[in-house]
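Researcher: We plan to redesign the surface later, but first we want a full-length starting point. Tokens attached.
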């Protein structure tokens, strides 16, 4: 078998699910493109991080790119910051992933963690400006705030004279921190918590004081901001609070992904700041695409053309596509199935029409399961498939059931997947 000159790692965000009555959105979706790949493929399952761990996308993606989280992960905040073009000062600044959210100011009850997904990027940018540069700790501390996509933002808490620590618990009840790793919490208590240090250090305690001050002041500023007063008039939820999670105080130092895969150059087609940050940290050339518009039919052609430009260079190509994760969180089986079908029709099928599978291999998987009945990420195994013309046969379908029944390997960790693909392809 000849070696391919190109390997595409295609991550379908949250597409994996848990079979219920023998069905999942992926198994029920009409996917001629995935089926075509599955005719010449080996497949199996993997736990994106480890058995039972319900990871966020950043941790899982880092793992799927071949990096063992325990060795390399420094928190999501620095990756979000890197992807958003924000440099952080190690030792005196801590970066957080942030959500604009809706709360009842008097009780701190969280009404909606994402403002009903109705906050525009334009509105978020105005709200971020109102918080950016906030003085904390009597003037010694400060906050830098930058909106990214929709309700998402990056918050950097800093001190002019003292060291800070990322060893602080999340100010978001939907994710609990165990060390540097955040895990989804089923049925969380939806009340805005106070910051808790994860160790007894003075640095962590001072960081928590600054975080609590920022969160409190942010509610005061945002609740009466003109953007929110106008939203209230229109019957929309106010974006009157900021949830902080996944603190980190340094960028991870990653060996280049090209060395892990055995192919160069390395390109990334990524939509969100955290994925862009991971790609940059891994030494990849990021081909920019527009943020998700909410209309996947409109978004996919741009992602396709960016991928094809990278295919022209050969090497390793990481492609991360949104779509199935959101309806999984919303508990919508049919919309999750439809999102998978749109990716297949508008990305995978036209991709196969324009690449040569005799020289290009495609590795398809999910970064985590987002079971629609659970409405959150889970620690369940997800399917993977390595397709290449040099393989004689395959399962004929790509889904949780087919890949479990026809498993070539059941991997305990996602970071084992790329090295396995490298061996199977002889790279």
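Model: Full-length starting sequence:
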């Amino acid at each position: 078998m000849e070696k391919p000159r190109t390997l595409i790692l295609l991550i379908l965000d949250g597409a994996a699910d848990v079979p219920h009555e023998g069905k999942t959105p992926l198994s029920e979706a009409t996917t001629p493109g995935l089926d075509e790949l599955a005719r010449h493929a080996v497949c199996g399952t993997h736990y994106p991080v480890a058995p039972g761990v319900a990871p966020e996308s950043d941790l899982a993606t880092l793992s799927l790119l071949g990096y063992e989280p325990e060795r390399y992960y420094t928190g999501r905040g620095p990756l979000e910051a890197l992807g958003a073009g924000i440099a952080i000062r190690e030792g005196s600044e801590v970066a957080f992933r942030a959500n604009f959210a809706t709360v009842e100011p008097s009780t701190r009850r969280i009404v909606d963690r994402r403002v009903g997904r109705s906050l525009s990027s334009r509105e978020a940018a105005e709200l971020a400006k109102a918080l950016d540069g906030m003085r904390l700790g009597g003037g010694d501390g400060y906050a830098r705030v930058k909106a990214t996509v929709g309700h998402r933002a990056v918050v950097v808490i800093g001190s002019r004279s003292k060291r800070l620590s990322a060893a602080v618990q999340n100010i978001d009840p939907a994710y609990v921190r165990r060390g540097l790793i955040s895990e989804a919490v089923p049925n969380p208590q939806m009340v805005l918590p106070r910051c808790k240090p994860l160790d007894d250090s003075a640095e962590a305690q001072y960081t928590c004081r600054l975080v609590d001050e920022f969160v409190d002041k942010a509610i005061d500023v945002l609740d009466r901001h003109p953007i929110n007063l106008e939203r209230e008039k229109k019957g929309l939820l106010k974006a009157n609070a900021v949830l902080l999670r996944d603190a980190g105080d340094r960028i991870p130092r990653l060996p280049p992904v090209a060395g892990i895969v055995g192919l160069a150059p390395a390109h990334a087609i990524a939509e969100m700041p955290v994925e862009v940050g991971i790609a940059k940290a891994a030494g990849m050339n990021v081909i920019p695409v527009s943020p998700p518009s909410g209309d996947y039919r409109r978004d996919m052609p741009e992602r396709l053309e960016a991928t094809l430009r990278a295919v022209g260079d050969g090497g390793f190509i990481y492609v991360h596509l949104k779509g199935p994760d959101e309806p999984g969180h919303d508990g919508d089986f049919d919309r999750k199935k439809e999102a998978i079908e749109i990716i297949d029709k508008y990305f995978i099928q036209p991709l196969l029409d324009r690449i040569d599978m005799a020289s290009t291999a495609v590795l398809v998987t999910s970064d985590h399961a987002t079971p629609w009945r659970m409405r959150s990420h889970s620690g369940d195994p997800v399917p993977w498939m390595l397709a290449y013309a040099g393989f004689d046969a395959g399962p004929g379908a790509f889904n949780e059931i087919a890949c479990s029944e026809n498993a070539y390997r059941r991997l305990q960790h996602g970071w084992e997947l790329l090295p396995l693909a490298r061996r199977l392809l002889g790279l």
